[in-house]
Design brief:
The protein has about 110 residues and is α+β, with helices and mostly antiparallel strands. The protein contains 2 helices and 5 strands; from the N terminus they run αβββαββ. The chain has a single domain, classed as 2-Layer Sandwich (HIT family, subunit A). About 20% of the residues lie in helices and about 20% in strands. The longest helix is centred in the middle third of the chain and has 17 residues. This is Histidine triad (HIT) family protein.
């Protein structure tokens, strides 16, 4: 498989890892859009949100839990933060391995940008 994020999970290429457990890996984004910009991914390859199955509900919940935990640990949970998941090309997905963006440390506006 030629998936960038799978290569980070398998340690074939480096990643600035900030959290890891049996199911989830989190690492700093190489092109941060905020003072904190962490990507949170399942270790198991799932290409898009459209590929999720009912059995993946706990895994997606775990991604959200890790985002909230990292926000607390980094000290911006109470002030606020943004969590985003993109799906397919028009949704802004560039790596086809589901991932959650945790961004904090600045004020965000709507629409996203």
């Amino acid at each position: 498989m030629d998936c960038l994020f799978c290569k980070i999970v398998n340690r074939e290429i480096p990643g600035d890892i900030v959290f890891e457990d049996d199911e989830v890996l989190a690492f700093n984004d190489i092109n941060p859009q905020a003072p904190t910009h962490v990507l949170i991914i399942p270790k198991r390859h799932i290409a898009t949100l459209n590929d999720l199955e009912e059995g993946d509900l706990a895994l997606v919940g775990r991604l959200q839990y890790v985002a909230a935990r990292l926000a607390r640990e980094r000290g911006f949970a109470e002030e606020g933060y943004r969590v985003v998941m993109n799906c397919n090309d028009l949704g802004g997905q560039t790596v086809y391995h589901i991932h959650m963006h945790l961004m904090g440390g600045r004020r965000f506006t709507w629409p996203a940008g």
